[in-house]
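Hi all, posting the design record for the shared folder.

TITLE: backbone redesign
STEP: 1 of 1
STRUCTURE INPUT:
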């Protein structure tokens, strides 16, 4: 294993995000906005990842976000949680802001390809941040990138897996290299008709 992989694993262990990221997908999938009504071609998104304002995990302010939801070319729904913290102080018992976020509108989706129910592509959403102890922050954008390595499906030109959060008045939070976290887009497969027997 590379040195960067060891450093990333140690960071995740200290930050408590390693096993949480993997374990979070089943829980995220249970959210009401991820299932239910007639799909009509809706795509779903799931992610839990870490991005920062600097190139390295410990180089500056960072944000860990989770979320799930669904979208069409006309609408988006979903949301999740976030913790914004100073990555230069790890472990970091204090945080800058924490709360939830909610999708406000669909911006774009560039699909790379599909692999089973998995979908590779780039999703952009308008969102609002809802800090626990502060007014809502409107006008933010969230870009989520999903490459599916086993299928050879990658964005071109290549973009790092993860999320980019752009908040008015702040430097953008971009994915680290290598990425820290998971992203996944899915589509509902066509169900065969059931026999009456």
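Okay, here is what came back for every position:
SEQUENCE:
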């Amino acid at each position: 294993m590379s040195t960067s992989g060891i450093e990333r694993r140690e960071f995740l262990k200290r930050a408590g995000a390693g096993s949480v990221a993997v374990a979070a997908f089943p829980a995220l999938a249970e959210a009401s906005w991820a299932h239910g009504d007639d799909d009509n071609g809706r795509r779903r998104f799931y992610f839990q990842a870490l991005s920062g304002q600097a190139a390295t995990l410990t180089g500056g302010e960072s944000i860990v976000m989770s979320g799930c939801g669904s979208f069409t070319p006309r609408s988006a729904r979903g949301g999740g949680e976030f913790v914004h913290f100073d990555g230069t102080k790890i472990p970091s018992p204090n945080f800058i802001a924490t709360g939830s976020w909610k999708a406000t509108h669909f911006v774009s989706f560039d699909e790379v390809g599909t692999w089973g129910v998995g979908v590779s592509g780039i999703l952009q959403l308008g969102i609002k941040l809802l800090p626990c102890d502060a007014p809502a922050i409107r006008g933010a954008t969230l870009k989520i990138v999903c490459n599916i390595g086993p299928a050879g499906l990658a964005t071109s030109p290549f973009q790092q897996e993860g999320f980019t959060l752009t908040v008015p008045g702040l430097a953008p939070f971009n994915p680290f290299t290598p990425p820290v976290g998971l992203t996944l887009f899915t589509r509902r497969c066509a169900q065969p008709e059931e026999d009456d027997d």
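COMMENT: The radius of gyration is 17 Å.
Let me know if anyone wants the other runs.
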